[in-house]
Write a structure and sequence with these properties.
By secondary structure, the protein is α+β, with helices and mostly antiparallel strands. The chain has six helices and twelve strands.
Length: 231
């Protein structure tokens, strides 16, 4: 994704540019072998020399990104949680955060509890790597893998206090691939006030993740509307 413009001065090989270049992270910059290609790092640095701002757009939480091989990437911004948050890079100064309000969380939680879905409800930023969960399907291996990966940040749903959960960053339901269509249709029908995004599990690349955010959340909208082209 490239937003902005670029100008070359006549009779010169130097650029005077303004623009924003946004790239995905997993399976794009971060290869399937878990490494970053040097030619990609060189390309990002060349954009900076041209005066073009650069950003990573990822579905990961900020915690997950900071603990990945991309933590030191030479970019200007990190768009994380599918656009629900933006920080500067380096330094991770928070520029944008969009949480689901407590009232909508409470309403949506009733619908999710009445469903047959295994789901997680994530705390608001900056602690969106922490979550509560409800499991009902014993064979949801991807769901179990995610709980195990973030065991120290996971609590069962019944740990929510009687006063309610409060604001949240997102809901996440995990379903087998062959159940995607039915589950996705049900979630969109029952949670019309949220932005519902379907992704393939980054863990086993087979199960489907159904992620529900504040309606203003998407990578493209955040890149187009919330990132300054120049600093």
């Amino acid at each position: 994704m490239n937003l902005g413009s670029e100008k070359r001065k006549k009779g010169s090989d130097t650029y005077s540019s303004e623009g924003l270049f946004v790239t995905d992270f997993d399976a794009t910059l971060l290869r399937s072998d878990g490494k970053l290609a040097q030619r990609d790092l060189d390309a990002i640095e060349s954009l900076a020399r041209c005066g073009i701002k650069t950003a990573i757009a990822t579905g990961r939480s900020l915690y997950s990104f900071i603990n990945s091989p991309g933590v030191d990437l030479p970019v200007d911004y990190i768009i994380f949680a599918t656009g629900a948050g933006v920080v500067t890079q380096p330094g991770h100064k928070l520029l944008r955060q969009v949480n689901i309000c407590a009232e909508l969380v409470a309403q949506s939680l009733v619908s999710m509890k009445n469903s047959a879905l295994d789901f997680m409800l994530h705390h608001p930023f900056p602690d969106n790597h922490k979550y509560v969960y409800r499991r009902v399907n014993p064979d949801n291996t991807d769901f179990e893998s995610r709980i195990e990966r973030y065991r120290e940040y996971a609590q069962p749903l019944d740990s929510i206090p009687r006063s309610g959960f409060g604001e949240a960053s997102q809901f996440l339901a995990i379903v087998p691939h062959n159940e995607t269509h039915v589950a996705l249709s049900a979630v969109r029908r029952e949670l019309p006030g949220l932005s519902v995004i379907r992704t393939t599990s980054p863990l086993d690349h087979e199960f489907t993740w159904i992620e529900c955010f504040h309606p203003d959340v998407s990578k493209g909208k955040t890149a187009a509307c919330w990132l300054p082209v120049s600093m």
